[in-house]
Design goal:
- Helices cover about 90% and strands about 0% of the residues.
- This is Signal transducer and activator of transcription 5A.
- InterPro entries: STAT, STAT5_CC, STAT_TF_alpha, STAT_TF_CC.
- It holds the Pfam family STAT_alpha.
- Keywords: Coiled coil, SH2 domain.
Length: about 240
């Protein structure tokens, strides 16, 4: 022991900074070895890495859901604006038709003077209405398809959280009670469920607004059946979350 002390003093007495560098290197090496053992060799470290990766995937899916929901919100507003303008033009066509009908009470000379312009105007408005009706139908179908995509991802996300993560959290809780690793945060599950509820509610309200627009201006096509399917799907998703 005395010999080791003499060697230590003779080595570092004149170079104290070298001693500091040596100790720092030893501490850094120990920390690195512990970190590597925790992340790769330790079952707890491996489990925490796996959980972190899954949590990141879940959060990424929530971000995708947020963007999809914002996109359908923008499309819904555009659809509503276009439909309101369509209704205005439809009312204009009715007004033109009423003016044409009133010409029957005028003398033939007056009727011939005013009728051509009204007929031309009616033809222009009716052609626009036909084109716009097809455009509105396309907007409705595109919106319904986007809602289908959102609900598919929403159902998948809900299944992962409720059928996978919640059950695994309960398992980790049991292991923690028996001296196993910590069970993980219940607050994270609660946060996910709150995000699910918020996203579900936003999409449900959007689908209801799309249904209201369809009822306000019925256009023959498959949109009614699609909206019924969307309503059924979102109801099932809500029921699963509440249960």
């Amino acid at each position: 022991m005395f010999h080791a002390l003499v060697v230590f003093q003779s080595t570092y007495d004149r170079c104290p900074l070298e001693l500091v560098r040596c100790i720092k290197h030893i501490l850094y090496t120990e920390q690195r070895l512990i970190r590597e053992a925790t992340n790769s060799s330790s079952p707890v470290g491996g489990m925490m890495d796996s959980m972190s990766q899954k949590y990141q995937q879940i959060n990424q899916a929530f971000e995708e859901l947020r963007l999809l929901t914002q996109d359908t919100e923008n499309d819904l507003r555009k659809l509503q604006h276009n439909q309101e303008y369509f209704i205005i033009q439809y009312q204009e066509s009715l007004r033109i038709q009423a003016q044409l009908s009133s010409l029957a009470a005028l003398p033939p000379s007056d009727r011939q003077l005013r009728e051509p312009a009204l007929l031309s105007k009616r033809a222009t408005v009716e052609a626009w209405l036909t084109r716009e009706a097809n455009t509105l139908q396309k907007y409705r179908l595109d919106l319904a398809e986007k809602h289908q995509k959102t609900l598919q991802l929403l159902r998948k996300q809900q299944t992962i959280i409720l059928d996978d993560e919640l059950i695994q959290w309960k398992r980790r809780q049991q292991l923690a009670g028996n001296g196993g690793p910590p069970e993980g945060g219940l607050d994270i599950l609660q946060s996910w469920c709150e995000k699910l509820a918020e996203t579900i509610w936003q999409n449900r309200q959007q689908i209801r607004r799309a249904e209201h627009l369809r009822q306000q201006l019925p256009i023959p096509g498959p949109i009614e059946e699609l909206l019924n399917e969307l309503n059924s799907t979102i109801t099932d998703i809500i029921s699963a979350l509440v249960t």
